[in-house]
């Protein structure tokens, strides 16, 4: 349970940083950006566990969370354009 809380907190910070780093016109608001950052952190955490990068109770690193958030923001922008 603690690892989920840490993943959400890291995702919150990663979403804010991903929003600042991703170039272009980001039309997503603060809440959407935060939710996508948390999603990126969770994807990085559980994807890393599935691939064997992290242990059972470990969370994704900060850089992996930021990269996951940037990828999800990019996909969100592709979907929201149409």
Structure, explained:
Helices cover 76% and strands 0% of the residues. It has helices at 2-21, 30-51, 62-81. The protein is elongated. It is built from three helices and no strands. The termini are far apart. The model has no long low-confidence stretch (mean pLDDT 78). With 82 residues, it is mostly helical. The longest helix has 22 residues, at 30-51.
What's the overall geometry? Answer: elongated
Query: What fraction of residues sit in β-strands?
Result: under 5%
Mean pLDDT: 78
The amount of helix comes to over 70%
Number of H/I helices = 3
Largest sheet: none
Q: Give the termini distance in whole angstroms.
A: 37 Å
The tally of strands reads 0
Structural class: mainly alpha
Uncertain segments of ≥5 residues (pLDDT<50)?
Answer: none
Radius of gyration: 12 Å
- The string of secondary-structure elements, in order, is HHH
């Amino acid at each position: 349970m603690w690892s989920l809380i840490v993943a959400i907190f890291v995702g919150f910070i990663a979403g804010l940083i991903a929003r600042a780093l991703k170039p272009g016109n980001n039309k997503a608001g603060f809440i959407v950006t935060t939710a996508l950052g948390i999603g990126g952190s969770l994807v990085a955490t559980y994807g890393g566990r599935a691939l064997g990068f992290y242990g059972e109770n470990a969370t994704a690193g900060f850089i992996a969370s930021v990269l996951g958030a940037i990828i999800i923001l990019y996909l969100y922008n592709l979907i929201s354009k149409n």
